[in-house]
């Protein structure tokens, strides 16, 4: 798992949802989506096989359950 100040990789974060997008090619593409949303302050990115999902959030949470 990778943790940084503005995003988290391959974990779950319940709540603070703005929207999610699937078929995202990279964490950088997810970051661009967040940057374009005024209320996005945090995002998560998870990739399984060739498809990635980007979850845009208004804030981060304290606990991150691992994706299964």
How does this structure look, described?
The chain has 68 residues and is mainly beta. It has 1 helix and 5 strands, in the order E-E-E-H-E-E. The protein has one helix spanning 27-36, and strands at 2-3, 7-9, 17-24, 42-48, 51-57. The longest helix has 10 residues, at 27-36. The mean pLDDT is 78.
Protein traits:
1 helix; mainly beta; 68 residues
Fraction in helix? 10-25%
Question: How many alpha or pi helices?
Answer: 1
Percent of residues in β-strands: 35-45%
DSSP strand count: 5
Give the neighbour order of strands across the main sheet: 1-2-4-5-3
Q: What kind of sheet is the major sheet?
A: 5 strands, mixed
Termini separation comes to 13 Å
**Structural class by SSE content:** mainly beta
**Poorly predicted regions:** none
Give the overall pLDDT as a whole number.
Answer: 78
Q: H/E order of the elements?
A: EEEHEE
What's the structural blueprint in terms of helices and strands?
Layout: E1 2-3, E2 7-9, E3 17-24, H1 27-36, E4 42-48, E5 51-57
Parallel strand pairs: 2-4
Antiparallel strand pairs: 1-2, 3-5, 4-5
């Amino acid at each position: 798992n990778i943790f940084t100040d503005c995003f988290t990789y391959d974990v779950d974060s319940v709540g603070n949802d703005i929207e999610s997008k699937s078929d995202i090619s990279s964490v950088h593409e997810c970051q661009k989506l967040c940057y374009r949303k005024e209320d996005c302050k945090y995002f998560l990115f998870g990739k399984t096989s060739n498809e990635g999902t980007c979850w845009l959030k208004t804030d981060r949470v304290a606990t991150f359950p691992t994706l299964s």
